[in-house]
Design goal:
11 strands, seven-stranded parallel β-sheet, globular, Rossmann fold, 3 domains, 12 helices, four-stranded antiparallel β-sheet, alpha/beta
């Protein structure tokens, strides 16, 4: 492609964008169109292009379904599609989704039967999302449960939406798929690729599924040096709905969210941080600071103001080392424990 052709395409792209409602996102829309055009020069085979177009279409459909509910907290529930209605795990998932719906939360599941159906039934059709996957060998439909639904071809797009849209996660006993989702989420939080959030491993009182899993993690993985002891702080355990619900709601009793602005991590909270809280953070969490402990209250940053991002919150900022996410979870616990907000 010569210079004249490139200039022509740039002008054409600009004209196309002007005719849309792209608004302040014009730069990103331009990038999407440009990358699509460049694909034609990469000599990709048809299968590669099908994967790209299908994934983009699936994500667009999913974004569209979630868009009206951005301001509502959401809980993703993982668990087996093979769990029967008569099993205690099914009732736990159903009751938890119902309990969280009374708190204003919505539930996100994989849209199939078993634990997924339990979550949708418990939350109710107006409070639940089903992100289904098309499988040739297993009926993923849950005809008795109505929800906002989207069907996907690829596991990776489905898993992205199960994680991206949610503020808390609960796993119940399940097979390879459940373990895959749980451990991938743990990996994302451990490495900072997903927002820090409660992850509760929930099982009935008579079940030892997660007890055995915890023993394996501690004896084989932690003691083997494959993870650090602080990584276990990313996991909580529960045997009943009230405990699981309490873990989730306590996490958001003061903490609201966080984001990086330049080199600093900005923690948004509901209550104005007290001097004593700042002192406690600097005293007990020196190890997660990049240099010297520098927890401090700050005003809304330019970047947050530009994005209209949580402008009504107070802020605590510090230079995070970007590796100690288990310890960061403990810092959030300290912030919540020193909150004046009701739990």
């Amino acid at each position: 492609m010569n210079a004249d052709q490139i200039d022509y395409l740039k002008d054409l792209i600009d004209e196309i964008i002007k005719s849309t409602n792209a608004g302040h996102n014009r730069d990103l829309i331009r990038r999407l169109i440009t990358q699509s055009i460049r694909l034609s020069e990469d000599d990709l085979d048809r299968l590669d292009l099908k994967i790209l177009t299908s994934a983009l279409r699936e994500l667009r459909d999913a974004f569209d379904i979630f868009a009206p509910f951005k301001i509502r907290r959401k809980l993703t529930i993982f668990g087996s599609a093979r769990t029967k209605v008569s099993e205690d795990s099914y009732q736990l998932a159903k009751d938890l989704a119902c309990a969280m719906a009374t708190e204003g939360w919505m539930t996100v599941t994989g849209g199939g039967p078993g634990i997924m159906e339990a979550g949708m039934v418990g939350a109710g059709s107006n409070n639940s999302f089903g992100i289904g996957i098309r499988l040739p060998f297993e009926d993923e439909g849950a005809p008795s449960a109505k929800a906002y639904r989207v069907e996907m071809k690829y596991f990776f797009t489905r898993k992205l939406m199960l994680v991206k849209e949610s503020d808390a996660f609960v796993s119940l006993p399940g097979g390879f798929g459940t373990l895959d989702e749980t451990f991938e989420l743990l990996t994302l939080m451990q490495t900072g690729k997903a927002q820090l959030a409660p992850l509760v491993l929930l099982e009935p009182p008579s079940c030892k599924y997660f007890e055995l899993l915890s023993d394996f993690i501690r004896e084989a993985i932690e003691k083997g040096g494959y993870i650090s002891s602080q990584d276990m702080s990313l996991i909580s355990f529960a045997k009943d709905v009230e405990t699981a619900k309490s873990i989730i709601t306590q996490f958001y009793s003061n903490f609201q969210s966080m984001r990086f602005v330049g080199n600093q991590l900005v923690i948004r909270v509901k209550d104005k941080p007290s001097e004593s809280l700042i002192e406690l953070l600097n005293e007990h969490f020196q190890d997660i600071c990049k240099n010297q402990p520098d927890f401090r209250p700050i005003e809304v940053t330019y970047e947050e103001l530009r994005d209209q991002d949580c402008l009504d919150c107070h802020r605590i900022a510090f230079n995070f080392n970007k590796s100690s996410y288990g310890r960061l979870r403990k810092a959030v616990d300290l912030i919540n424990d020193n909150s004046s907000s009701p739990t």
